[in-house]
Amino acid sequence: MCLALDASNIRGVGGGVTHLRELLRAAYPPEYGFSQIFVWGGAATLSELDNRPWLCKMHDPILDRNLPLRAGWQLLQLDRVARQNRCNFLFAPGGVYAGNIRPFVAMSQNMLPFEWTEARRYGVSAWTLKFLLLRYAQSATFKRADGIIFLTEYARNKVCQLLGGAVPLTTIIPHGVAAEYRHPPRISNPPARNAPYRLLYISTIAPYKHQWRVIQAAAQLRQSGVNVTLELIGALGPASHKFFDALNRLDPVRAWVHYRGEVSSHDELRHSLEAADVFVFASSCETISITLLEAMASGLPIACSNRGPMPEVLGEAGIYFDPEQPAQIAAAICQLLDDPALREQKAWLAYERAKAFTWERCAQETFSFLAQVAAGG
To answer: What whole-number distance in Å separates Cα of residue 95 and Cα of residue 72?
Structure first.
């Protein structure tokens, strides 16, 4: 059986590209009855994929263009080129497919279209319009699909409740963590030579990530006499004005907040994780977060948002807070800093919990599910 994999709407350096790269790196599809996989995508996305004997990278210049052109290609061309290559099964990890190849499996990797409270944070903007269109397109896709892959129970419950009516076969398959991020906990208290405690937050600067509130929380800690620095890593996004307003107001000379922008090097990210004392994750909307999983695998104590699937993913290994309340963020961080035994306990719980999240498991469960759907459920 030949599998068509539609990556036409998977771009950038986000979780979608990471999932696709690591899934195909860890998989051996012939074991599940898929003799070849044809992946259609843009040049940048295809360049991220390892060469495999069973993998055919299919590039069309239109897939390097803007979203409307790519959506038009998917609607008008995908079925034709897939059938030309004798594909009789389709996997849409981007969550949108309007063609007629059956059976097909879709994947839910974006909760913003299904959580209106979170989407409204973008105000009247092209982003909000995009989320509305995605909600319509993904809902239509999910209702037609022969199977849907969700990343967490939270996401499945939320989306299926909104879909209503008959829901196709579903499964939960979380993402994994690359082996190079796994590192046993290393707890020190106090830091050597009265150095500050190093807080770390890795995520795109977006309205639902609340980086400016984390800056406010760190400022409150410093005002109360707790010596902390805050390192922020992530590409600039639609909440950049709030981020820089807080940064310029609370630390205009950048004495204790260090913003590094987007970092794509795995070595640099690992170095930042290894150097941190506490990881902070303040998102209020996720399907699952690879950066949270990487922090868990790195053996860090974690102060974490209590929204969305975060308690499901992190379990008892985190100290939780309301991400919209800087005082709660500060209190959660302070609870970890004040108690070395608690920090060590939470770090080990996170490290052990992260062992369940592997790309090998993700690949095995994904292709087992695809084979199950291909065989008629």
So the answer is: 16
